[in-house]
Design a protein that fits this description.
The structure holds two protein chains of two kinds. Chain A contains eight helices and 13 strands. By secondary structure, chain A is α/β, with parallel strands linked by helices. Chain B has helices at residues 17-29, 42-50, 70-83, 94-107, 212-221, 229-233, 264-270, 299-314, and strands spanning 4-9, 32-37, 53-59, 87-91, 110-115, 117-118, 124-128, 133-139, 144-148, 165-169, 179-185, 199-203, 224-227, 254-258, 275-280, 293-296. In chain B, helix 5 (212-221) runs parallel beside helix 8. Classes of the chains: A alpha/beta, B alpha/beta.
């Protein structure tokens, strides 16, 4: 199987995150592999391993789009066990919204050719829109399962389970297909020493927009279909009244709610 | 004034509050057309008239529910073209966002999710990076597709009711879509949906496996029940209840955090709530840094006492 996993380099949510003044894009210092993408990578590794791994010709390709630092998300994926990495990078990509991002990623997937499965996380942890997987499916004309909490592939078909608030569904689709997975699907592995050493020998292919046949005018700020006119940092929340329970804190809580007209 | 298409999916016997919010916003921006999927009950038809809907579109195909969103998106895009809508409005549920994503590609239209308000010129307001920034953004395309977060518009019927006409829209064939082969309905809790709720009571590690006090307080307040990832991972409560970076984002009028330390991932899911109350034994818990009212105390004392007091006052 040839599996592509989309991996994104996102600001670490452990630290304060900021927008840059120019174009209100996300400041990508202190960035890491998006936590939610690790589940997609683990799902890909398990599918490949169940079929005999890379020795049996299974490929797990970690694909990232972004500035130079984004290659770190690919490197982490290689350490976890991806067989190869692809980094789509080009100055013209800066400022791409979900539509422009999905255009470039769709072109990259087509460029790789013969892909059986594209796996993604359920959302990025920076933009959090969860638009890209569905837009990629629409652009590639592929069937898609979103929010999969289980995933099985048998022959040319996949079966997945997805949980919504009011129902659980079992879904089937023919390959090739796109699947976004939730954080319930597995427990991602940590890169071990062997994986870290092995990753140094794995290749990362760098692709420009010209390589994947995308017109620079279709991506970046120029090619995006949305623009951010203004962004204001909200004042951080500050602590209010803190009390220690002396046996009547439940009553005081209700007094507070009544005073706030919340009862 | 823009023409607005509102997508309403399988409303059943009556419209949800979030649907009424969509209709109210749509009317404020211009004329509203409903793109309906599923049966139109008499009650829902009456509500559409009351909310000033100009026309109701139906899909030509009956089997949209048998597939994951692709055919629904094809229908919504066709409905937007048929109605000449400049704005397509959907709810902000995972499915609403996914349909919006695909409609955007089909219509070459910019998509903005998590919208809390829309200006007359189509500028949408939302917060990003877990509520730390408020942004104003706009689609640069002739059509824009917006998903509206619940609880940001007050539902209001039109000054005068309308008599909506009904029109059928041909659903274009979709090449390949995932088919739903089985569907199990979950047992309804009787509590409000977490993402739409006006009040949320959430429990964490401090509940020590017993969500009884959280549920009791939630029921006294008519609130939804939420949880931290620690509590859902421990299996104390369904994963659907998880609030946080990798779970649901909520911004209710009141969020009561019980036995949750308030790590940054949990804060990311709830810090745009209007009022935050925290109860935790550990005075050093980071949640106290953002709480409007904090109680250093035992959840097993404070929550039942509060629930009993609310019941007493409500009589």
């Amino acid at each position: 199987m040839k599996i592509v996993v989309l991996v994104k380099h996102v600001p670490d949510a452990q630290f304060d995150r900021h927008l840059n003044g120019a174009g209100n894009t996300v400041d990508r210092d202190e960035s890491i592999l998006s936590e939610l993408d690790e589940y997609a990578l683990e799902a890909a590794l398990q599918l490949a391993e169940a079929r005999g791994g890379s020795k049996a010709g299974n490929q797990v390709i970690a694909l990232s789009m972004g500035p130079s630092g984004a290659v770190n998300a690919v490197k982490k994926a290689l350490q976890m066990g991806a067989t190869e990495g692809v980094h789509v990078t080009d100055d013209a990509l800066a400022g791409s919204d979900a539509a422009a991002t999905s255009l470039a990623l769709a072109a990259a997937v087509r460029h790789l050719g013969g892909v059986d499965l594209v796996l993604t996380g359920m959302a990025s942890t920076d933009g959090e829109t969860s638009l890209v997987p569905a837009q990629l499916a629409e652009r590639l004309g592929l069937p898609q399962v979103t929010f999969a909490s289980t995933l099985e592939v048998d022959g040319g078909r996949l079966t997945a389970r997805r949980d919504a608030d009011t129902s659980s569904e079992t879904v089937e689709a023919p390959l090739p297909a796109i699947v976004s997975v939730t954080d319930q699907i597995n427990e991602p592995r940590y890169p071990n020493f062997k994986g870290i050493i092995a990753a140094k020998r794995k290749s990362i292919t760098t692709l420009s927009l010209a390589d994947i046949g995308v017109d620079p005018a279709q991506v970046g700020f120029a090619g995006s279909w949305t623009s951010v006119a203004s962004a204001e940092q909200r004042p951080p929340r500050t602590a209010g009244t803190i009390i220690t329970d002396e046996g009547d804190a439940g009553i005081k809580l209700v007094d507070f709610l009544a005073a706030q007209k919340l009862l | 004034m823009a023409k607005v298409l509102v997508f309403i999916d399988n409303p059943g016997a009556s419209l949800k509050k979030s649907s009424l919010e969509l209709l109210t916003l749509a009317r404020s921006l211009g004329g509203s057309t409903v793109g309906l999927n599923g049966d139109l009950s008499d009650g829902v038809a009456a509500t559409f008239a009351e909310y000033g809907v100009d026309s109701i579109l139906h899909p030509s195909a009956q089997d949209l529910d048998d597939f994951l969103v692709a055919p629904k998106a094809a229908y919504v895009a066709a409905a937007a073209e048929a109605s000449g809508a400049a704005i397509v409005l959907l709810d902000n549920s995972p499915e609403g966002k996914e349909i919006a994503a695909r409609v955007g590609i089909r219509l070459n239209a910019g998509v903005i999710t998590d919208v809390v308000a829309v200006d007359g010129d189509g500028t949408a307001h939302k917060s990003v990076l877990a509520g730390s920034y408020s942004t104003a953004c706009k689609a640069t395309t002739p059509v824009s597709v917006l998903t509206l977060k619940a609880n940001n518009v007050i539902p209001e019927p039109a000054p005068a009711p309308t008599t909506p006409e009904t029109v059928t829209v041909d659903v274009p064939a979709v090449a390949a879509a995932a088919r739903i082969t089985a569907r199990e309905q979950k047992v309804a809790s009787g509590r409000p949906d977490l993402t739409d709720a006006r009040i949320v009571v959430a429990g964490g590690r401090g509940m020590d496996g017993d969500f009884g006090p959280v549920e009791e307080l939630a029921d006294a307040l008519g609130a939804a029940v939420g949880a931290s990832r620690a509590a859902t991972d421990a299996g104390w409560i369904s994963h659907d209840a998880q609030v946080g970076q990798t779970g649901k984002t909520v911004s209710p009028q009141l969020y009561i955090s019980a036995g949750i330390s308030g790590a940054i991932q949990q804060k990311a899911g709830m810090q745009t709530s209007q009022v935050i109350v925290a109860v935790n034994k550990d005075a050093e818990s980071p949640v106290f840094e953002i709480a409007d009212f904090g109680i250093i105390g035992d959840v097993f004392d404070v929550l039942p006492q509060a629930a009993a007091e609310i019941k007493k006052r409500k009589g």
